[in-house]
Specification:
Elements lengths: L3 E8 L3 E3 L17 E3 L8 E3 L1 H11 L2 E7 H7 L11 E5 L15 E4 L2 H12 L3 E5 L2 H8 L5 E7 L7 E2 L15 E4 L4 E6 L3
Parallel strand pairs: 1-8, 1-9, 5-6, 5-8, 6-7
Antiparallel strand pairs: 2-10, 3-4, 9-12, 11-12
Length: 196
């Protein structure tokens, strides 16, 4: 069985988006290199440095499913029914998107809570990894002991306020192993395994 990986681009002060939910400069590094690549959707190419491309390719090829919250699903309009990475998306929500134009045809599943969503995503991913989006959903999964690894794209910017990387929940304290560090341009990739 694969790992559950919380993956996020994050500011130096720990935010994954501005107060208005836009990423601001957090995604600029997706366009500052010479290597064109995609995750699972070939219609969403980006250009990164060779170091970042090698790192992201290694990460993306292992992903079978992702878990996100309803907020991100709504902000992206469910990525037009095409998973941004992997073959399946599990959305944590109490309001299934029955009126979504891609309902019933896109590989999207709706789950009532984070543990159910992660379990379903693991089933769908098989022996591949599951990514969990940052914010409240990722923080809940981390605090529940469901996350094996945290991968951060640390961007050299301070946003001042915004959406916290691990949501707004409190304890417990969680320790990590020493990071693997990959330096890109205007981004540092950090891989932390959860200490068990």
């Amino acid at each position: 069985m694969g790992r559950v990986v919380l993956f996020a681009a994050v500011s130096l002060d720990g935010y994954v988006g501005r107060d208005d939910d836009t990423p601001g400069p957090l995604f600029d590094w997706y366009g500052n290199g010479d290597v064109e690549m995609t995750f699972s959707d070939p219609d969403r190419p980006f250009r990164v440095t060779a170091e970042t491309a090698e790192f992201l390719t290694g990460l993306a090829t292992r992903v079978g499913a992702m878990v996100c919250g309803r907020r991100l699903f709504d902000l992206t309009d469910g990525w037009g029914g095409v998973p941004p990475n992997g073959e399946h998306v599990v959305v944590v929500t109490h309001r299934p998107a029955d009126d979504w134009p891609h309902a019933g045809t896109a590989p999207f599943t709706f789950a009532p809570d984070v543990p159910t969503a992660v379990a379903r995503a693991r089933e769908l991913a098989g022996d591949r990894d599951v990514t969990v989006s940052a914010g409240d959903v990722g923080g809940q999964a981390l605090r529940a002991g469901l996350v094996d690894r945290v991968v951060l794209a640390l961007v050299p910017v301070v946003l001042g306020s915004g959406r916290p990387c691990f949501g707004t929940g409190g304890p417990p304290e969680i320790a990590f192993e020493d990071p693997v560090v990959v330096q890109g341009s205007r981004v540092t990739h950090l891989v932390y395994d959860v200490r068990r």
